[in-house]
Specification:
single chain, 433 residues, alpha/beta, Aminopeptidase, Aminopeptidase i, Domain 2, nine-stranded mixed β-sheet, five-stranded mixed β-sheet, 12 helices, 20 strands, 26% strand, globular
Length: 433
């Protein structure tokens, strides 16, 4: 399969996934097509050797695994971890409000987006509703408004003369509400918004109880550059890593490798991961332990399995951008289309250490994939990932890696076409090894 075909599949995946809830639903469809069976945490498990399974927690975190036929206490789990959420804007509970002659939608900042990039974009929203069924149960349903419904128009330069010198600064409370419609006396804002949800979800208004809705950019992903060697889309951080991990898991050689392989994709990384379904919660430890129990391992066997395990914590990395050389560590520049990036930090913002780093390099060499090493400028605070928290919680050796990209946390991010295939190749090698 060509590099461009793999990236087009990634772009299609992202464009079908305008929220973390949709991302998990998109992955679920791919897993079901590959004969994976959904398990419930509320029921007992009967796992078969070579069985393919997945678990979803609260609609936006998912763990998929294959039960290996190798003895788990000697071979351990081979885990790829990433996250399903991206920084951006979420709609507040009382969504619509009138401001002079306009109706605006109130939003809250989720994580750390580059707010200026949300201006003058074709925006809409997607997410999930919670509603009461006719039988009285509480259920959820995904909604996806595909037309462009919202916009955040910039202030004209005539009224903001220093914007090019000082940069665009938006007050999060007063200047982020998104324009939706002209107002009229006949429109009651809350009722109008509920009517939108009713029409989209086909659920009566009296049954809709609550919602979680994510603002997204309706522009689809594209290839760009002289040789179309780059691509751009929203949510590359971190749906690109989720897609790469999923493609590696579904490889025929991986499925038949006899290893116990796991993909764990968590929500809430962008806000600290401390939640019932975040990487700093119980989801992954619970599932790994239940795999061990369902395959008749003792507690000691389970601990031995963890000691033999390895995890790739996969998130995106900061590619060198020559317009801003002062933002980078001069001796540790990484570039798009030059291979996966090993992320290193002495203060444990990343989980990589010399042994896990060496093991990842070995897998890259076996896969014929180039690799790079990244260190952050010492005088700029370094970000972090799910790697340190999951490795600390489980005692599993971990390396933090990712593909290089530009404009991380922009609503429109860019990366290199070759790198997505490189990452899938080394993930396959890791799972098979």
């Amino acid at each position: 399969m060509s590099h461009s075909v793999q990236v087009q599949q990634l772009l299609d995946f992202i464009d079908a996934s305008p929220s973390p809830w949709h991302a998990v639903a998109t992955m679920e469809r791919a897993l079901q097509a590959a004969a994976f069976t959904r398990l419930s945490e509320m029921q007992s498990w009967q796992l078969k050797p070579a069985g393919r399974y997945y678990i979803i927690r609260d609609d936006s975190s998912i763990i998929a695994f294959v039960v290996g036929q190798k003895a788990l206490p000697e071979s351990g789990y081979k885990i790829i971890g990433a996250h399903t959420d991206s920084p951006g804007l979420r709609i507040k509970p009382h969504a619509l409000h009138k401001a002079d002659e306009l109706l605006r939608i109130s939003v809250e900042v989720y994580g750390g987006p580059i707010l200026a990039t949300f201006t003058d974009r074709d925006l809409s929203f997607a997410g999930r509703l919670s509603y009461r069924t006719e039988e009285g149960a509480i259920n959820t349903k995904l909604v996806h408004f595909k037309p462009s419904l919202l916009r955040l128009p910039n202030l004209a330069i005539h009224m903001n003369r220093t914007v090019n010198e000082d940069g665009l600064k938006l007050n999060k409370q007063t200047e982020l509400p998104l324009l939706f419609a002209m107002s009229s006396k006949q429109q009651i804002p809350d009722q109008l918004f509920t009517e939108l949800l009713v029409k989209q979800a086909q659920i009566p208004a009296e049954q809709i109880l609550s919602w979680e809705l994510n603002i997204y950019d309706t522009q689809q992903g594209i290839f760009w550059g002289r040789e179309q060697e780059f691509y751009a889309d929203s949510q590359l951080d971190n749906l690109a890593s989720c897609h790469a991990g999923l493609m590696a898991l579904l490889d025929d050689a991986v499925l038949g490798s006899n290893n116990t392989v796991v993909c764990a994709f968590f929500d809430h990384e962008e806000v600290g991961s401390e939640s019932t379904k975040g990487a700093d919660g119980s989801f992954l430890p619970d599932i790994l332990e239940r795999i061990a129990l369902a395959t008749d391992l003792t507690d000691e066997d389970y601990k031995r399995a963890l000691a033999h395990s390895f995890m790739l914590s996969v998130d995106m990395a900061h590619a060198y951008q020559s317009n801003f050389p002062a933002a980078y560590e001069g001796e540790h520049k990484v570039y798009v289309n030059k291979g996966p990036v090993i992320k290193l930090n002495a203060n444990q913002c990343y989980s990589s250490e010399s042994v896990s780093e060496a093991m990842f390099i070995d897998w890259c060499q076996k896969a014929g994939v180039p690799y790079q090493k990244y260190a952050h400028r010492t005088d700029i605070p370094c970000g972090s990932t799910i790697g340190p928290m999951t490795s600390a919680k489980l005692g599993i050796r971990t390396v933090d890696v990712g593909n290089a990209m530009w404009a991380m946390h922009s609503i429109r991010e860019s990366a290199g076409v070759l790198d997505h295939a490189y990452m899938i190749d080394v993930m396959r090698c890791f799972f098979r090894d």
